[in-house]
Amino acid sequence: MEFALVILLMLALMLGVLGYGALFWAQQKLSKAAGEGAQALLQANLRGAAASGVAGCEAARQEAGWLAIECVSETLDCAWTASDGGPAACAQVRVRYELAGWPLLATLRGAAGAVPGARAWFPDVLSAQAIVQIAQEPTT
Known about the structure:
The protein is built from 3 helices and 3 strands, in the order ααββαβ. By secondary structure, it is an alpha+beta fold. The protein has a 3-stranded antiparallel sheet. It is elongated, with a radius of gyration of 21 Å.
């Protein structure tokens, strides 16, 4: 009888560690994907290509691998000023992943439903963003 109680607690602990480990891994993967997308936008700009979001989102999706992410890439003014006092140009890549698309985490969320209030422990969506300053054209 005691072993049955202990094994249930150990299984619950193992599922918790597995679930949070998977969440941390997925968040890290999204952060890396957003960073790679921003880096691809910067490299495309340095090669002289237009600062379109296509290169950034392609790089982010490639880095995300099998995670079916949503990606938005845009150019905007940076929060800081350029050396000439004007606004600096930045590119931003935002990625988002719905956790319902991952069967492991969907199962863990279902198992967490047995504990009152435990569904709030698992988010529905993970997201990340990266911002990079785009090189400016020299003034003549």
